[in-house]
Amino acid sequence: MAYNSLVARVELYRVTFGELASAIAKAGGDIVSIDVIRSTGESSVRDITIQVSDSQQSGIMDALQALEGVNLIHVSDRTFLAHLGGKISVESKWPVKNRDDLSRVYTPGVARVCSAIHEDPRKVFSLTIKRNTVAVVTDGTAVLGLGNIGPYAAAPVMEGKAMLFKQLAGVDAFPICLDTTDPEEMLRTIQHIAPIFGGINLEDISSPRCFELESRLTEMLDIPVFHDDQHGTAVVVVAGLLNALKVTGKRMDRVRVVVNGIGAAGVAICKMLLNAGVKRLVPIDRDGAIVRGGYYTQPMWQWLADQSEVEATPGTLRDLISNADVFIGVSKGGILTGEDVRRMAPQPIVFAMANPDPEISPEEALPHVRVFATGRSDYPNQINNVLVFPGMFRGALDCRASRINEPMKLAAARAIASVVTDAELNEQYIIPSIFNDQVVANVRKAVIEAAILTGVARRIPPEFR
Question: Of the residues 3, 13, 26, 106, which is catalytic?
Answer without folding.
Answer: 106
